Amino acid sequence: NIGLKEADPQLHNLIEKEKKRQWGGLELIASENFVSQAVLESLGSILTNKYAEGFPGHRYYGGNQIIDQIENLCIERALKCFHLSPERWGVNVQPLSGSPANFEAYTAILNPHDRLMGLNLKDGGHLTHGYREGHKAISSTAKYFESMPYFLNKKTGYIDYDRLEQDSKAFSPKLIVCGASAYSRDWDYKRLRKIADKCNAYLMCDMAHTAGPISSRLLKTPFDLCDLVTTTTHKTLRGPRAGLIFYRKGLRKVTKKGKKINYKLESKINFSVFPSLQGGPHENTIAAIATALREAMKPEFVEYQKQVLQNAKILGAEMTKMGYSLVSGGTDNHLILVDLNNKNIDGARVETVLEQIDITVNKNTVPSDTSAFIPHGLRLGSPALTTRGLQETDFVKVAQFLDRGIDLTKEIKSRTKGNKMVDFKKQLELELQNNTKLI
Ligand code: PLP
């Protein structure tokens, strides 16, 4: 049995290069993180060899005695990590990632063409929250279900709950999804529950981005008021790339007539994951989730999450001091969304230039944007660099680097002939070829 270096030097070399890239630059993508050696070991373990269709105790293949113990351990830790009692909540740990987890949750409770509402993509929502462009369904969640977005209040940059309430009365969705990919504020679950109850809809939270601070009790918990909670495990939670679906057990809701209903979410969710949408679970990933969850229950993890939020606040404050505008004016969580409109530059060009100076960020739409390809926002997150040990004073410097990178982008833009992104990229390439020192 030979190792990768010997067996496949070409690939080994590429992985080494990527390792160097990851460790050599400033990683500010809000959805990324660095997992521990222990998580990597579980992920790269021999568990990848095993087929385990079904659930613990009910498998379609033999030889799953140990696998059952691993999956049960992951389930137990997932509930404990989010402070849930196994009598009231259950969790499916098999979703392959966040998008499949969401589709599986929808498929469990909705019929084709049932209605759902989620935060508009350009306002910070995720594709899987029903994204469509006009009549064209971009996400399958808009193709197989009827979706209607809700929005940010353009003045405040916070969720426009009043408009959501009005629109949901007219649209009458069967599901309202909260949670987002680029929203820097906490959620008003009480208000959302009231809105959902008025139209008799399920309330689901996709806490993919905020699972870490939620487990550390630094943000409000969605579990008190939602029926379903989905998450990825690889963002603030610092685990492998995967998803989880939490479902409320037993009697759920009082209808207008005072009746309690058992929605049987457990059997619906499990059936939707397997056999409806997935086959054999990736037990090596499930083991790695279990490892990450164990880490997430340690006091050091809570300290880490506190630092993540503190670093995001400092970054936001420093950017604001330098004249940048933030959507909603600040942050409650691990990310900030910079609106570059007042700086006369867009996020796409800035992202391209920052990449050349080893700062990784992502362009993002802001509410005023019409194009997702050349948007005017920059999404910046603190989780990855906080894992690397950066603290408040370091983030002051990070803000300064960003400012210099943005200035540089403006300079290159001013030297570009033509207005298109391709012209800009050509100009950048030219300057790099001429060995211009960027910073
Ligand atoms: N939900 C939210 C809120 C996300 O931000 C993301 C990914 O960024 C997902 C779901 C999808 O996760 P994945 O990329 O693992 O499919």
UniProtKB/TrEMBL annotation:
Protein name (record): Serine hydroxymethyltransferase
UniProt catalytic activity: (6R)-5,10-methylene-5,6,7,8-tetrahydrofolate + glycine + H2O = (6S)-5,6,7,8-tetrahydrofolate + L-serine
UniProt keywords, alphabetically: One-carbon metabolism, Pyridoxal phosphate, Transferase
Root EC class: transferase
Cofactor(s) needed for function: pyridoxal 5'-phosphate
Pfam families documented for this protein: SHMT
NCBIfam families: PRK00011.1
Residues found modified as N6-(pyridoxal phosphate)lysine: K235
InterPro entries per record: PyrdxlP-dep_Trfase, PyrdxlP-dep_Trfase_major, PyrdxlP-dep_Trfase_small, Ser_HO-MeTrfase, Ser_HO-MeTrfase-like, Ser_HO-MeTrfase_PLP_BS, SHMT-like_dom
GO biological process, one term: tetrahydrofolate interconversion
The UniProt record lists the keyword Cell membrane: no
